């Protein structure tokens, strides 16, 4: 008997697409009067951004088993091996890889595979971190911070080995198991690599005399210019995610899931720098109350993110964006003085965000059709994810 799991496997292998899967399920249930509500749910499958993070009750059950298994193994290894952290981490990583050969390769359990992938990556990163910590004897810096200046000849190579190692491990794990969250790990590690060398470049400029130490008045300007690095990294990660989306318009392959995680990573990298650059706010030093001009710029910035999210059909880009602005508004209202009068500008922003979330949750595809379809050329719309109304 044909089951939904068979159809999901057919979608994963590229035999059919997600829309065809939904149509087949609708046909299979047309004769059952008692499943009318369920038919409506199936017809609406393509109206939502399918995260494919959990494979079902059995996936959750196995995930709990994995957490219990490795918790027990961790306590046992700590008892047997004591303080030998590298050996313990290596054994845990090897065991997680072996379990992934069964859970991920054989049964493609989504949540369990994600937990195993993150665990394997965490233990391998711990091995690299512990090795670098012990090799450079970083514990001495806590007692004598001046020793940090003597690490410059080696910090670049060891830092590159750390971030590059995590990226290579993530690529290897993805090549073997096709776990989408590894794309986020690759993006984060490469972003860390870029931050490291940007810092070392300016540090070398100061020590060589090419760059003067900033005065207190110049600190805000330096911080503002420093925002260019996360902004550039966010643009690169976002463009990579859009590329994956364009090569999988039907959202039926692992590349679509990779794009989801890349959008989650790119959103904070884009939002924070653009917020400060567009509104002139100094979040680092605590000034976050925007005036009228800054509030207008903030509203335009939110509108731009909303429009892009609608165009590429990615709420995973929009949710962190709204969460950022919402948390910023909450922070401002908590820090506001008791004698302030009138409605704070960011309170209005919070109201708008709340309405947007409810409205988008109720009719995402209809809003896409109303906003995106009339404003973009047909040639571009045909390359974007289909508008399903």
UniProtKB/TrEMBL annotation:
* Parts of the chain that traverse the membrane: 60-80, 86-103, 115-133, 155-175, 182-203, 227-246, 258-279, 291-310, 317-334, 346-364
Q: Which UniProt keywords apply?
A: Membrane, Transmembrane, Transmembrane helix
What is this protein called in UniProt? DUF2157 domain-containing protein
Organism of origin = Ahrensia kielensis
**Lineage start:** Bacteria, Pseudomonadati, Pseudomonadota, Alphaproteobacteria, Hyphomicrobiales
């Amino acid at each position: 008997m044909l089951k939904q799991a068979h159809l999901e496997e057919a979608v994963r292998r590229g035999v059919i697409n997600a829309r065809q899967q939904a149509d087949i399920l609708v046909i299979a249930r047309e004769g059952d009067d008692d499943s009318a509500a369920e038919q409506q749910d199936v017809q609406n499958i393509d109206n939502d951004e399918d995260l494919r993070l959990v494979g079902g009750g059995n996936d959750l059950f196995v995930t709990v088993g994995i957490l219990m298994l490795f918790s027990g193994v961790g306590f046992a290894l700590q008892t047997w091996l004591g303080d030998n952290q590298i050996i313990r981490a290596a054994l845990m990583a090897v065991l997680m890889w072996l379990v992934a050969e069964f859970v991920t390769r054989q049964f493609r359990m989504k949540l369990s595979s994600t937990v195993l992938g993150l665990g394997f990556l965490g233990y391998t990163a711990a091995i690299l971190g512990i090795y670098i910590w012990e090799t450079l004897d970083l514990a001495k810096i806590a007692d004598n911070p001046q020793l940090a200046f003597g690490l410059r000849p080696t910090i670049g190579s060891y830092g590159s080995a750390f971030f590059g190692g995590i990226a290579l491990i993530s690529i290897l794990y993805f090549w073997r198991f096709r776990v989408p969250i590894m794309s986020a790990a690759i993006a984060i590690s490469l972003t860390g690599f870029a931050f490291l060398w940007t810092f070392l470049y300016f540090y070398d400029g100061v020590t060589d005399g090419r760059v003067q130490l900033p005065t207190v008045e110049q600190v805000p300007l330096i911080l503002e210019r420093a925002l260019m690095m996360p902004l550039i990294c966010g643009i690169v990660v976002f463009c990579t995610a859009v590329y994956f989306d364009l090569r999988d318009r039907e959202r039926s392959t692992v590349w679509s899931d990779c794009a989801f995680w890349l959008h989650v990573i790119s959103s904070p990298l884009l939002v924070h720098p653009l917020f400060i650059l567009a509104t002139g706010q100094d979040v680092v030093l605590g000034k976050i109350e925007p005036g009228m001009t800054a509030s207008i710029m903030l509203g335009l910035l939110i509108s731009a993110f909303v429009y892009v999210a609608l165009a590429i059909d990615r709420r995973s880009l929009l949710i962190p964006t709204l969460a950022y602005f919402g948390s910023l508004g909450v922070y401002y209202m908590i820090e506001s003085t008791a004698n302030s009068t009138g409605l704070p500008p960011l309170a209005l922003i919070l109201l708008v965000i709340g309405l947007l979330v409810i409205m988008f949750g109720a009719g995402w595809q209809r809003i896409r059709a109303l906003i995106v379809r009339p404003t973009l050329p047909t040639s571009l719309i045909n390359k974007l994810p289909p508008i399903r109304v």
